[in-house]
Amino acid sequence: MSGMHRNWISRQRFIQLAAAVLFNGYAAGFQKGRIFTGNSKGICVPVLNCYSCPGALGACPIGSLQTALGGIRRHFPFYVLGMLMLFGVALGRVICGLLCPFGLVQDLLYKIPFWKKKVPEKIDRPARHVKYVILLVMVCILPAFMVTETGITPPYFCKYICPAGTLGGGIPHLMANPQLRQAAGALFGWKTLVLILIAAAGMVIPRPFCRYLCPLGAFYSVFNRFSFYQMHLDLDRCTGCKTCEQVCPMAVEAAKDSNSPECIRCGRCKNVCPAHAISSGFSYKQTADRQA
Question: pTM (2 decimals)?
Fold first, then answer.
């Protein structure tokens, strides 16, 4: 690994850690096992960050979306979708690459010395569509149309899948509250199993949750091609060495599609390119690769 690449990884880790602290800065919550209830809790953060996490200072957009669609009042989530679209248009999936706390967790898991495996393309490509199905079915359709006796539809994604909620919300609460540990049942066991499986996969392949399961990443991916923050590839400089593809955690073919919906814009490709053909930033510029 070159010195430039090591420096970039250090900067990326600093930004990720700073974002995690910013979104989960209520330190007293971890000590007391209580949820922060201040005014900022009504504001959606741009990342997957569980509302029930003791340190969370804001609301998770995916949880808020399900609550709006499945609550007693069942209203269209104009505010939540507006915030998500604002984040998406401004940044695209750079939010996934630099700001998401669970993205940081996956990056750290992959650094653990363990057996590494490249997922065959015939499995990888179809599997990437699962996150879009989760967004459409579990986050939108089921909360909006399923009817329960109480009139409130549970947030299916948060309840049955979300590993960030288990790691940031469920486990800290159980550690701080003996009564909750005694009451934990099969559902928490299922959520813990999901977290363990994703964590195990994260040691073998980079960012498995981002690739295959995250509905928030699926939403932001729609904006990647026209968000203000873009990756730029200079085709005149590119030598086709594919060094960028070797370090990409999302297995994006940057030379073919530098603004792929799968690109989380972590910047690793830019910092290993020997020809300095890749750049990134806020721009309206129509680059050669976007016109091709």
Answer: 0.90
